[in-house]
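Purpose: get a first structural picture of the assembly so the mutagenesis plan has something to point at.
Setup: two entries, given in the order below. No constraints added.
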Amino acid sequence: MSTLIISPSPHVHSGDSVKKNMYGVIIALLPALAASLWVFGLGALVVTVTAVAASVLFEYLIEKYLLKVPSTISDGSAVITGLLLAFNLPSNLPVWIIIIGALVAIGIGKMSFGGLGNNPFNPALVGRVFLLISFPVQMTSWPKPMANVGTYLDATTGATPLSIIKEGLKNGEKLTDLLKEIPSFADMFLGKMGGSAGEVAAIALLIGLVYMLVRKIITWHIPFAVLGTIAVFTGLLNLSNPEEYAGPVFHLLTGGAMLGAIFMATDYVTSPMTPKGQIIFGVGIGVITVLIRVFGAYPEGMSFAILIMNAFVPLIDRYVKPKRFGEKVK
Amino acid sequence: MLKTFSLGGVHPAENKISAGKKIEVLPTPAQVSVPISQHIGAPSTPVVKKGDSVKVGQLIAKSSGFVSANIHSPVSGTVFKIDNVLDASGYKRPAIIIKVDGDDEWDESIDRSPELKKDIDLSPEEIIKKVGEAGIVGLGGATFPSHVKLSVPPGKKCDVLILNGVECEPYLTSDHQLMMEKGEEIMVGAKILMKALKVDKCIIGIENNKPDAIEHMNKLAQEYEGITVQPLKVQYPQGGEKQLIDACIGRQVPSGKLPIEVGAVVQNVGTTFAVYEAVQKNKPLFERVVTVTGKSVKSPGNFLARVGTPINDLIEAAGGLPEDTGKIIGGGPMMGKALVSTDVPVTKGSSGVLIMPDEMAHRKQAQPCIRCSKCVSVCPMGLSPYLLMTLSEKGIWDRTEEEQVMDCIECGSCSFTCPSNRPLLDYIRLGKGTVGQIIRSRNK
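Result (structure tokens, whole complex):
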């Protein structure tokens, strides 16, 4: 011993790290990835590989040549953005569009704000919504489930359950008849329906949720607030007029409600810091999602709802404080 | 369900390597340096001068105010000089340096017999006076003068005494071992404190990782009316005064207030033992049990050391300084101070010496905040560490104060937990210091 190290306390650390949390999320996404490969086959594989590779590559290039800062690609956050972007895209989307999506997600959604920790909006959703508005045709053609395992661009397509109901109701059809046109709830739970590559299998996403809760990567507040609000809101609508409004099970299983509530709304960087704030955030997402789905022009509203509530996070954190010790004198 | 405090908390690896090691009496050193500021409050005023000969237990520096403490000679010998020496804070501060003679001659008034003395002869007022005279301070590490805590301010009422046997800091075992070996004395000490505070209820809080101490103290408590043992779930920082009160009786001390606000007084078990010795044996506080421990330490243990002993003597007694030493910590790993030298003397507040191998002694590179909110969820005071750090870093002091920075107990749970290894507590301390100054100047 030549010199003693001097530093303020604490002198020990939990050993937790950004990497551990990020890789934990990646592990939690694997069941959903497996499900998307099972349901959409080759297309899902191409979309996922492209989105992840492009996201990581853009982060690397921007940090190296534009920002000239040390690379952070090994922290795993760019991989998550890539995975989540892929999960939000149809599995027959051309590679060049996916690459544009990744560039917007990483370049504008994340790096332009200063990289991990500084972005106000969920990067994957920024990319996804950019593509949805720019390429509405390609972004709303949905490969049929289980029928396109060996195909990619030439996949046969069909509508998603949400758009079947939305269009049908608009054309004056009866909900009871429309519900016969969509897959059974059991099939939907397993992921056998049209939709974005990673959003369809509720069961796989729920396994991911349990994993993240057990590993304490996230807490229950946001996912339960989002899903609970959607269930209650659509449940009340359904009770008020069962002929016009689909019930909570339908809404929970479709349109990326699970993917959004479990993986997108829980993004650390873009969600509030206190349990109370997280519940407000989650309720807001649930309410906006249902409003868009039921009364808005788009058949699905999850992405917009999350992005809108992302914008409220600084405000929520400014006014919602954690429960202080000693506040309540017994 | 075991009781614990209601907000936050972490569970660091316990590493109680020296648990169960019998308290060894450390030989008196050749020379001691007794700092005149070993407690919270005003430094004591020396009452001896160069060349004076002193006995063990003789007053050498007297309390200089209500919040201050007497200091007694831990050895017999000759005052060599009063000079500045390095202390645990890393600053040079005045200390009385005494050259030890070989006789170890104790002041005659101290009862050195080992018999337990159960009957309490003194009145409440006399007890508080005695505790003050004996220079007793909180031995858990806070070193707040005990007689001040026992003097319940007018208009306030105390209804329960809580003894802190939690020892929530990893590695440390001195309180644990003291309960195992001096449990009976602690019981009598508790009765003395109860008498002084005029309460008939005493709860001893002990964490569940010390089942032997819980059982032992529980058995002893059967014979002492009003004393009960409360087993607690292992959760850091349960030894914090406010957390312990919350855990034991479910009352939360309001922001900026003292425990007496909710009718409680907390004393550490080590302090309680010192009170027993002072009141029953007329022995002032000049020695204490110190844990010497660490992953590479040859024979970790619990040592009874005189105040003023260089910690080097303690390290030698535990097998010497390991080759791979990177950091020496006075206290535990969560709240202890990194020491600048092995010459630093043992003081009343020294609960342990933790020797950390070099590989464990370095901090990791801090990364950007990913807003995971783990610091918020572990904060036992319900604060937002991430926000306090940013506000302090940017020097936005009014908002730092508004966010209740002064409530921070500096337990370190936030920095411990942060996955980005951010120096949260470093900046919060900065904020606390500056805001504290602002508040003081405003109140002038």
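Chain B has a mean pLDDT of 94.
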